[in-house]
Amino acid sequence: DKVPKEISQKYYISRILGQGACGIVKLVYNKTACTKHAMKVIKKSRLTNGQLNHLNNPAKIMNEINIMKALRHPCIISTEEVFDSCDAVYIVLELMQGGELFDRITKLGKLPERLTKFLFRQMVLAVKYLHSQGITHRDLKPENVLLESKEEETIVKITDFGLSKFVGEDSFMKTMCGTPLYLAPEVLRGNGLNCYGPEVDVWSLGVILFVCLVGYLPFSSDYKEISLRDQILSGKYRFSHSHWQHVSLQAKLLMKKMLTVRVERRITLEQILNHAWMQDVDIIIRTERLLSQEALKEKVYLTQSSTNSDEENINIDNVTVLR
Ligand SMILES: C/C(=N\NC(=N)NO)c1ccc(NC(=O)c2cc3cccc([N+](=O)[O-])c3[nH]2)cc1
């Protein structure tokens, strides 16, 4: 539908790249710089019976964008530019031509263990960085893990900070939206206070690791014996030997420590990086090299990017508020 002219003046809007729960992602071309980008369009919620629906209320979207703009890591998606119009927010981002990790797992059925280790180490480093900035992602899933290229061994970037929280804030569970396939038990339990910490991201990473290694979900409503909620609360995941026999013992041991119901016993990100399964020198060297190259690229770009101040729009620190 109609895109504000400030955007169509600067960008040529091309095809749809992905369809998320909270909006679509389109391929756009910057007309002057002749560069390609992704543009996520997040519709602002209508006022339904007088109150903003919790998902896409403007304040929450701007909170997310401020979080994204504050972050700088090779494995966290970076925003190019943001246009805030009355009924939608347009976020111009780097192009991630490898698409979503979800689609690569679906296409291949599952990932080879070595490739999983390569990609998983980057996800752990990204989440470790998030936590060092006082942010809990809270919605880690393969749909929110993007791949930079179609190469097998490529850079991973985390996205969709729609549910992210600065851990300092009240971490009351505001939205129980979507199915809890990747949700930690302490969030589901919601014992009154609903308070929970960054460890929820370790649980979600554990579910992602599980799906990468064997191509099926550890907890699912397809498993009729017990409810999804009870599967998660008991930490009883489906362990089909035919799938797991090709997976190394160390990977299984790490998995078990991540999908630990008791928060105080769950493995930490630091311990994951020091776990035996992660001590693969070749993988460590290749991920470190890839990430330092990416970080360097980021620096070079920043020194080049010009500050454009259009008189008719307020352009503070590359958020253009459209009149
Ligand atoms: C910020 C954000 N979501 N925030 C949100 N939903 N808040 O509620 C967000 C979510 C998803 C994406 N996705 C992409 O950038 C993205 C998806 C995809 C699929 C095929 C190909 C590409 N591509 O860039 O080539 C893709 N990019 C980018 C940003």
Overall mean pLDDT = 89
**Count of separate DSSP helical elements:** 11
Principal-axes geometry comes out as: globular
Structural class from helices and strands?
A: alpha+beta
Give the strand tally. 14
* Range of helix content: 25-40%
Weakly predicted, low-confidence segments: 306-312
* Amino-to-carboxy terminus distance: 18 Å
Q: What series of H and E elements makes up the topology? A: HEEEEEHEEEHHEEEEHHHHHHHEE
Strand content: 15-25%
Q: Going across the biggest sheet, name each strand in turn.
A: 1-2-3-7-6-14-13
> Main sheet, how many strands, which sense, barrel?
7 strands, mixed
The Cα radius of gyration reads 20 Å
List of distinct ligands in this structure: the ligand C/C(=N\NC(=N)NO)c1ccc(NC(=O)c2cc3cccc([N+](=O)[O-])c3[nH]2)cc1
Short synopsis of the structure:
It contains eleven helices and 14 strands.
Architecture blueprint of SSEs:
Layout: H1 5-10, E1 11-20, E2 23-30, E3 35-43, E4 47-48, E5 51-52, H2 58-70, E6 79-84, E7 88-93, E8 99-100, H3 101-108, H4 113-132, E9 135-136, E10 145-147, E11 156-158, E12 165-166, H5 185-189, H6 199-214, H7 228-234, H8 241-244, H9 249-258, H10 269-273, H11 281-304, E13 314-316, E14 319-321
Parallel strand pairs: 6-14
Antiparallel strand pairs: 1-2, 2-3, 3-7, 4-5, 6-7, 8-10, 9-12, 10-11, 13-14
Helix pairs in contact: 4-6, 4-11, 6-9
The structure holds ligand XK9.
